[in-house]
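My main concern about presentation is that the manuscript never shows what a single data entry looks like. For the editor and my fellow referees, an illustration may be useful. For illustration, here is how one protein appears when written out as sequence plus structure tokens:

***
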Amino acid sequence: MMTEAYSPEEDSRFALILGKPGGGKGTISGKILTDFPQFHHVSSGDILREHVRQETTLGKQAYRYMQAGKLVPDELMIGLVLEESAPYLSRGESLLLDGFPRTVVQAQALEQEVSIDIIVNLEIPTDTIVERLTDRWIHEPSGRIYSYGYKPPQTHGLDDLTGEPLIQRPDDQPETVRARLLQYDEATLPLVQYYESKPLHHTINGGGKDGDVLKTFRGTQSDIIYPHVKDW
């Protein structure tokens, strides 16, 4: 479905990418944006982290939940994401929404604003994500991410470009990661079921067919998963 080319004059598309925190949504989104540049990317996680870094009122509220390994409440996330998406929607441009919605309440609020065309659902094993996230260190000002397992910095503990220190986010600590993933599963299973129950939304593990809006992709490596996403 995603490989169908269309010109700017054609109708815009609204796509969602769902999956656990640390499950490769950002990596897959980046590949989609490279191959399908008509899409604009809005990441709920990036928006939250920027508010936390700027210590906005919303950021301070969200940080308390994130530090405790809890999901940020629906009312905070809905307002934040819709505000960020509004400029693109008002211009009728295509949008890739990453990490939102995470609950049925959020999905229902989103449907009041847009018609969803494509849903990419990533299913990555919990143990894979825990190992990946607890090995992740970031350069906070730029958002650059390093992993000592597969993408280490040139100098231990320092950003390659600036030489500034890397940090590990509080929500990347092992116990926090597992708590957050458990909460995600509890909140998001009903969300996937909600989309599956709607017309033209189907979870398919083989090849897609015309009319599919939701497809689930399972695996442990984004580089292996993405070609299937692109072909769909």
About this structure: The first strand starts at residue 14 and ends at 18.
